[in-house]
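Readers outside the structure-tokenisation community will struggle with the description of the input data as it stands. I therefore recommend that a typical entry be quoted early in the introduction. An entry of this sort, consisting of the sequence and the corresponding backbone structure tokens, reads as follows:
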Amino acid sequence: MKRLWTALATVMLCAGCTSVGSVGMVTKNMGDPGALLRNGQPYTEIGTAEGEACRFFLLNVVPFGNSSFSAAVEEALEDSKGDALLNVTVSSSLYGFIPIYNIFSYTCTNVRGTAIKFEKKP
């Protein structure tokens, strides 16, 4: 019985949630990414790319880090040397430790997709 109460207390002290969505195409910050689609810009698939961006909160007052979608995309593209991501899956997670007092919590945004590199038009 003591193990049950210990397990229940542990679960109550750590809480989290996750949400997931998907996006068709994400590019680096550019002037007109829609022009790439309209003009039929050729590209080469590089492979699967993943990126993560996290923001931490200490005592729910002191935030540090960047958990934005764009930061996660930039990390994925930087690691893969790509220009854009296709078929992107996005997940956002929020975790809290001792949630009643908000001692420490963090949120992370993860992206995963197929990295592509745009080719020069002849």
User: Anything to note?
Assistant: Residues 4 and 10 are 10 Å apart (CA to CA). The chain has one domain: 2-118.
